User: Which sequence fits this backbone?
């Protein structure tokens, strides 16, 4: 009996020990599974980045980092794994490294992550503006934005300057300011680098300038501009084999600006509002007007040039009604030239003049009124009256008109002094060199001739050797071409898809606005779409769209619509926008037929 009792007790003890051992194993496993999150800094200057580390142990997956997207941009990410054995127990872990750029200032929360039921603690960081007392920025690179005039007239040129201050570590910067229905934007040439001192620190200053043209009076807000940039950072990585410069991405942000835009000056007496710094009017005859004969055409070229204006702001010159003269006008030529601190635009008109009788005829003077924005007064340019002493001619009047009409229908050459307005501001690119290819060939000499047979064998052997080398070189060249082609296609495909998606979105906006009554909004939307449609040679105004699509009907309609902004008469009829949209779609269909070799997806779906 005593022995039986002892055995029962022993079984109970063994069962208890086994149960404790199993529970201990589960306890160890539960203790081993963990998930933690930490940041390298809890206070971040606006535009700079913070590094988040997420460490997991004995977990089957990694956390969902998309939870960060509402508050952060993920600049760079990476995962490293580890494995260890302690006291016979295997532990697997990983560490996720995320470089994050906060989108907004203020208190920003990093949420808790959960994997396999195990959660990390949420974190909080403070994003403070640059210049906050007691907070030293990581990089001495910053931007300032200013305008030369805070209270301009409506449609008056305002020069906006973006100054990027750099302590020498800036590798690249890509500012971009786009217009909207309230303000038109034209880029100006990049000015040279300068040196300025602030708070005892010398900076390189890179200045980017833009010409702004507010399209409405009242308050016009220039929103904060975000500038993607990169700075050199020796601690940030790099590739010793490629010897590239290690850089780290940052974002520079400007403070928003407010313009108080004045309406047309009350003292303006012209129906056409033209606020510019300078206006010139020139003319040129195709021949000596003193030798003109009745029935024989000659040409008068008129040119308006304005400083501080877009080409579509320049007015159309009214054609006079002169008894004894028939005047035919050609399509005006428009051009703009960006200068350091101004946009200079030209409007050139050609009048084909046919006198139908002999005698003294007079073209009346031409007067164009404009508003001098520097002296704040109305001025005018005058082309004096032109006296024409017409001699008797032999050419029939109908024959002369036929010649003039043929000249008008012929395509015109562009203005010789025209320069595209859209000059992109190039970012600074450091440490980039052209690839060099060096062909290597084995050095060879004539073989030693032992006898005729040996020499023949040697020649045959060399022939097959060179043939094999040539085949190998051709194979390697084919392999390299295939790799480069696949790499180029892979790189270009996302960019092409992104461009097509952007153009499609712009086109949908154009179609939607064509069904409304806001002519100015439709104007801006068409120009934005056209710049997406022709990215390599961007358009600058509505008439350019009709000219590109080779449609006289559309060009005339676009010119009338564009003049709504300057004539003082609001054309907000829905029917007119609908008809212009129909003309635009017809012109696009014609372009697609002319360019049948272009894939259909390169054009918007009508």
Assistant:
């Amino acid at each position: 009996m005593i022995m039986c009792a002892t055995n029962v007790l022993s079984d109970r003890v063994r069962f208890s020990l086994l149960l404790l051992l199993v529970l201990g194993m589960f306890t160890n496993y539960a203790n081993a599974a963990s998930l933690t999150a930490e940041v390298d800094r809890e206070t971040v200057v606006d535009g700079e980045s913070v590094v988040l580390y997420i460490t997991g142990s004995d977990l089957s997956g990694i956390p969902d980092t998309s939870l960060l997207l509402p508050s952060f941009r993920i600049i760079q990410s990476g995962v490293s794994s580890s494995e260890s054995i302690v006291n016979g127990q295997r532990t697997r872990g990983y560490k996720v490294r995320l470089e994050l750029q906060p989108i907004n200032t203020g208190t920003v929360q990093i949420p808790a992550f959960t994997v396999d039921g195990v959660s990390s603690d949420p974190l909080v960081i403070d994003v403070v503006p640059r210049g906050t007392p007691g907070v030293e920025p990581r990089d001495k690179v910053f931007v300032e934005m200013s305008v030369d005039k805070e209270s301009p007239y409506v449609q008056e040129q305002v020069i906006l300057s973006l100054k990027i201050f750099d302590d020498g570590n800036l590798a690249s910067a890509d500012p971009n300011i786009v217009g909207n229905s309230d303000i038109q934007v034209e880029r100006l040439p990049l000015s040279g680098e300068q040196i300025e001192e602030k708070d005892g620190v010398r900076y390189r200053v890179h200045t980017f300038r833009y010409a702004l043209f507010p399209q409405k009076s009242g308050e016009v807000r220039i929103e904060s501009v975000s500038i993607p940039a990169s700075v050199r950072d020796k601690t940030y990585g790099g590739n010793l084999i490629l010897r590239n410069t290690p850089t780290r991405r940052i974002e520079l942000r400007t403070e928003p600006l407010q313009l108080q835009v004045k309406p047309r000056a009350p003292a303006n007496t012209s129906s056409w509002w033209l606020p510019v710094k300078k206006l010139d009017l020139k003319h040129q005859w195709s021949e000596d007007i003193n030798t003109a004969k009745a029935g024989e055409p000659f040409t008068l070229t008129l040119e308006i040039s304005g400083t501080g204006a877009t080409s579509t702001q320049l007015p159309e010159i009214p054609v006079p009604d002169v008894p004894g003269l028939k005047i035919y006008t050609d399509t005006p030529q428009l051009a703009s030239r960006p200068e350091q601190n101004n946009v200079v635009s030209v409007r050139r008109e050609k009048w084909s003049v046919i006198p139908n009788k002999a005698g003294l005829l007079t073209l009346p003077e031409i007067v164009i009124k404009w508003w001098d924005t520097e002296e704040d007064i109305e001025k005018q340019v005058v082309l004096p009256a032109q006296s024409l002493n017409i001699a008797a001619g032999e050419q029939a009047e109908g024959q002369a008109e036929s010649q003039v009409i043929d000249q008008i229908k012929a395509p015109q050459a562009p203005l010789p002094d025209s320069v595209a307005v859209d000059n992109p501001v190039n970012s600074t690119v450091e440490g980039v060199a052209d690839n060099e290819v060096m062909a290597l060939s084995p050095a060879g000499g004539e073989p030693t001739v032992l006898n005729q047979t040996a020499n023949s064998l040697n020649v045959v052997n060399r022939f097959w050797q060179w043939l094999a080398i040539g085949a190998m070189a051709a194979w390697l060249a084919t392999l390299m071409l295939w790799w480069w082609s696949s790499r180029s296609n892979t790189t270009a495909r996302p960019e092409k898809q992104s461009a097509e998606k952007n153009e499609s979105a712009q086109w949908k906006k154009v179609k939607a606005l064509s069904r409304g009554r806001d002519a100015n909004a439709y104007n801006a939307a068409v120009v934005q779409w056209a710049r997406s449609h022709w990215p390599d040679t961007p358009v600058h105004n509505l008439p350019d769209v009709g000219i590109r699509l080779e449609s006289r009907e559309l060009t005339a309609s676009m010119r009338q619509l564009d003049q709504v902004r300057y004539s003082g008469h609001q054309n907000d009829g829905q029917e007119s926008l609908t008809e212009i949209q129909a003309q635009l779609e017809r012109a696009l269909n014609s372009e697609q037929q002319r360019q049948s070799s272009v894939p259909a997806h390169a054009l918007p779906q009508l």
